[in-house]
């Protein structure tokens, strides 16, 4: 079974970006993945602001990320960047916390104006945490997610984009699982690796 962590970086209790995460979680469970959510807004604010690495709740959340096989990170766009709340949590992660994990970013914004923030602001941070496989993001504006009957709806285009992104993530998880069993098999048999396997591992 694949183990996926979803991380919500919105400070808002009612949040479009977190709603996208909920849809992704449902889809991943249908694909047989185990999913755990971290809501950064639920973590102790003082511990995050003071970078208290010893705080028990923060440590549990960090461990969830460390043990995940993939991470979906959702953020609102704030002031042409991702949220400060998300950054305060990412700052608590060990340097290589995202190594060997596919990472799928989600973002919502008031308009398309700051869409590139994911590339110029979030991606370098993910790279500094060891992420080498950042999947194509899912981005929705407020117009793409109107309130209908007291909850958020998504346009067909966003629903399709989300489904496509989840398929890509599931494929990436399958590839990673194949790679792991290849490595484990090689370790067990202690055989000289084939050139194909060598290339594949790299
Ligand atoms: C403090 C603040 C700053 C914002 N800055 C931007 C911005 O720079 N660019 C943008 O496209 N939207 C901006 N927005 C709009 C939010 O990104 C948008 O409402 C988003 O859907 C909120 O996501 P959430 O519901 O998950 O919190 C801002 C909203 C707030 C509250």
TrEMBL record:
Signal peptide: none
Domain of life: Bacteria
UniProt keyword Lipid metabolism present: no
One biological process term in Gene Ontology: alkanesulfonate catabolic process
Ranges where the NADPH-dependent FMN reductase-like domain occurs: 4-142
The UniProt record lists the keyword Glycosyltransferase: no
GO molecular function, one term: FMN reductase [NAD(P)H] activity
Keyword entries, A-Z: Flavoprotein, FMN, Oxidoreductase
Family note: Belongs to the SsuE family.
Protein name per the record: NADPH-dependent FMN reductase
